[in-house]
């Protein structure tokens, strides 16, 4: 039986990996220009980190985690997201005792056992940022401005930024009671999942994708109307800061996010037109997370973008030319007996920063020339009897077909001169 990639995973071949490199570079450059620095955490963590961080009642923890016991019977989980691991690092390395805020970015694979469809995978990739150590609403604005900056650098202008405040634990608890009370007589009209959510986390009924559930609860009390004075003030300062920086947003009463750690500012960025999975990124404040994981009371805010969904959006924009890395030189060895000289020359070219390659398939000189043409190398260097005996190399410019006989130093500087001018 042929072994295939597991369901919900896929391979990225070289023609596509250039697109990834393009997006990753834009994200990295944008984050660094905002003072964020890269962090890398393990692909698996103790299961407890996500149970306590993301929340037992969330879809992620209750049904989507790849959890397994290792050979020492420790329960480990492939990371479904990157915020809880960053909070763990902050605590474990005592980073919180240094200068705050701490601003990190990360990218890499995440794992969720979800039903695969366009834009939804079991191994997917996120680019995320986390800023710990300040609850200043201007930091919320800065994080959202970075998100929008990434979209603008990618040429994605038709996004919708949804914004809400989910309040602090005090106003959210009071709101929860109000919502339970409102939904109680309407429960029978909700979908199966929402009936479950009613008991576990009634706020999640608000962001159910099923229209009938929205119809059932029309006129529900909003969290916005239940915010305490601190949360109200915080939210309005975030909104003013965004407005003053020319960022448009949609206040969205239904936006509650699917992870338990959020408090105050919550946001999502959507690209209508990329299919059912239009939420390309999401984030918010998580002021209680570090404390819930056993650390000090340190606030935080961040977001994560789904790379696959961004790629879908870029593809939809139409054919964009992504430059493929090409060879500068191809060494053609005219006769087997000069293989060693060919290999030595190849190594020298590479050491001098020239992207070079040769054939290892035992092809004839003519076939190697044909192969060199396919690699789109700008130059071919011929290694034949005359070259080896007389101590020069023949350089052929594949663009204008001109040919020169040059010593090694001259050869290298001629190639470098052309590639540096590119
Ligand atoms: P999230 O909303 O669960 O938030 O995920 C963020 C983004 O990851 C989504 O908007 C989506 O683009 C992408 N994503 C999620 N699941 C999948 C999937 N199965 N397949 C493809 N893409 C997916 C978080 O993960 C939070 N940690 C974000 C955050 C950072 N909040 C504060 N800091």
Description:
The protein has 422 residues and is an alpha+beta fold. It has 2 domains: 14-168 and 228-316, Bira Bifunctional Protein, Domain 2 (BirA Bifunctional Protein, domain 2), CATH 3.30.930; 329-420, Rossmann fold (3-Layer(aba) Sandwich). Helix content is 39%, strand content 20%. The protein has 15 helices and 16 strands. Strands 1-5-6-11-10-9-7-8 form an 8-stranded mixed β-sheet, with helices on both faces. Strands 13-12-14-15-16 form a 5-stranded mixed β-sheet, with helices on both faces. Strand 15 and strand 16 (403-406) form a beta hairpin. Helix 5 (137-153) runs parallel beside helix 9 (229-244). Bound molecules: histidyl-adenosine monophosphate. Histidyl-adenosine monophosphate is lined by residues 81-83, 112, 114, 119-121, 124, 126, 128, 130, 259, 279-284, 286, 302-304, 306, 308-309.
Bound molecules: histidyl-adenosine monophosphate
Strand fraction: 15-25%
Strand tally: 16
Distance between the termini: 48 Å
Shape: elongated
According to CATH, the homologous superfamily of the largest domain is Bira Bifunctional Protein, Domain 2
Question: In brief, what are we looking at here?
Answer:
This protein has 15 helices and 16 strands.
SSE blueprint and pairings:
Elements: H1 14-33, E1 37-38, E2 44-46, H2 47-53, H3 59-64, E3 67-69, E4 75-78, H4 83-92, E5 102-111, E6 123-132, H5 137-153, E7 160-165, H6 169-183, H7 192-200, H8 211-216, H9 229-244, E8 250-251, E9 263-270, E10 279-285, H10 289-292, E11 300-306, H11 307-316, E12 329-333, H12 339-351, E13 356-358, H13 365-375, E14 379-383, H14 385-390, E15 393-397, E16 403-406, H15 408-421
Parallel strand pairs: 1-5, 7-8, 12-13, 12-14
Antiparallel strand pairs: 2-4, 3-4, 5-6, 6-11, 7-9, 9-10, 10-11, 14-15, 15-16
Helix pairs in contact: 1-5, 5-9
The structure holds histidyl-adenosine monophosphate.
């Amino acid at each position: 039986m042929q072994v295939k990639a597991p369901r919900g995973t896929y391979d990225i071949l070289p023609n596509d990996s250039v697109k990834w490199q393009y997006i990753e570079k834009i994200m990295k450059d944008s984050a660094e220009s905002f003072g964020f620095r890269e962090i890398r955490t393990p692909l698996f963590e103790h299961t407890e980190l996500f149970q306590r961080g993301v929340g037992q009642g969330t879809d992620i923890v209750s049904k989507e985690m790849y959890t397994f016991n290792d050979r020492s019977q420790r329960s480990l989980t492939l990371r479904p997201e990157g915020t809880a691991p960053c909070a763990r690092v902050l605590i474990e390395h005592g980073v919180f005792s240094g200068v705050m805020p701490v601003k990190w970015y990360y990218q890499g694979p995440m794992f969720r056992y979800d039903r695969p469809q366009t834009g939804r995978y079991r191994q997917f990739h996120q680019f995320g940022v986390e800023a710990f150590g300040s609850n200043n609403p201007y930091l919320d604005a800065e994080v959202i401005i970075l998100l929008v900056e990434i979209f603008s650098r990618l040429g994605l202008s038709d996004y919708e930024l949804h914004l809400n405040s989910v309040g602090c634990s005090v106003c959210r608890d009071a709101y929860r009671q109000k919502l339970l009370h409102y939904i109680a007589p309407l429960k029978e009209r909700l979908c199966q999942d929402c009936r479950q959510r009613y008991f576990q986390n009634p706020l999640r009924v608000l962001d159910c994708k099923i229209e009938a559930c929205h119809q059932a609860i029309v006129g529900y009390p909003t969290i916005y109307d239940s915010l305490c004075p601190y949360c109200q003030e915080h939210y309005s300062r975030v909104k003013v800061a965004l407005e003053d920086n020319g960022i448009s947003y949609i206040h969205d009463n239904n936006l509650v996010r699917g992870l338990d750690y959020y408090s105050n500012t919550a946001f999502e960025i959507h690209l209508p037109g990329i299919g059912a999975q239009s939420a390309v990124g999401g984030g918010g404040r998580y002021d209680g997370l570090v404390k819930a994981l056993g650390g000090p009371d340190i606030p935080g805010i961040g977001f994560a973008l789904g790379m696959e969904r961004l790629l879908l959006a870029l593809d939809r924009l139409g054919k964009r030319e992504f430059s493929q890395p090409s060879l500068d030189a191809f060494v053609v060895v005219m006769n087997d007996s000069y293989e060693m000289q060919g290999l030595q020359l190849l190594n020298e070219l590479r050491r001098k920063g020239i992207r070079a390659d040769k054939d290892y398939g035992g092809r004839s000189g003519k076939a190697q020339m044909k192969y060199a043409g396919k690699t789109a190398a700008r130059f071919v260097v011929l290694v034949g009897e005359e070259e080896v005996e007389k101590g020069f190399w023949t350089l052929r410019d594949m663009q204008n077909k001109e040919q020169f006989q040059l010593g090694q130093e001259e050869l290298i500087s001629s190639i470098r001169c052309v590639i540096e001018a590119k």
